[in-house]
Amino acid sequence: MSQMDSIEAEETGIATWKVELWVALALMLLGALVAYKSWELGAGWRDDGPGPGYFPFYIGVLICAACVVILARSVVSAQRDTSVFVTTPQLKLVLTVLLPTVAFVMVVQFLGLYVGSLLFIAGFMVWVGHYGWVKSVSIGAIVAVLTFLMFEVWFKVPLFKGSLNPLGFLGY
Q1: Residue 23: which residues within 8 A CB-CB, separation 6 or more?
Q2: Which residues of 75-105 are buried (b: 16+ CB within 10 A; e: fewer)?
Q3: How far apart are CA 118 and CA 147, in angstroms?
Q4: pLDDT by residue (tens digit) across 68-102?
Q5: Full DSSP string of 96-108
Q6: Rounded Cα–Cα distance for residues 49 and 37 (Å)
Q7: Model confidence over 26-45: pLDDT tens digits?
Q8: What is the distance of C-alpha 43 from the center of its chain?
Q9: Taking the CA of residue 56 as centre, how many other CA atoms within 13 Å lie in the half-sphere pointing to its CB?
């Protein structure tokens, strides 16, 4: 087995045409939603010009039309791209960053940017960087405290503190 054969054998994953199919379907739903809501808003022509939904309606229709072309090309065309869109190791690398980031966004809704940042930095350092908990939490806390001082105290720019506002005892 040559080196090229072993590289090709390792490249397993989702085919590009399947990703194109799912993205086109998702965008078609978005385009249909934009067109529908724009029609409800008023996509027609009025005495004083176009209604408020006129241009968004046609943008939604154009998005849907483009998606039909992509769907046709990815499903029935002879030009279907069967190459691997992303290999399993590449997908794991992307998810290594994506999953903690999604968790951060959800945590920020409840605990705010400062506590969320501390948890994000510490968790990321432990999970991805394999640092110890003490070092990770210390660095996360230092960054969160410096960010708090910079925005809240020095610049007088309040940042989102979350619905639970765990730092409310500080008076900010």
Answers
A1: 70
A2: eeeeebeeebeeeeeeeeeeeeeeebeeebe
A3: 10
A4: 999 998 888 777 888 999 998 999 999 999 999 99
A5: HHHHHHHHHHHHH
A6: 19
A7: 999 999 999 999 999 999 88
A8: 30
A9: 16
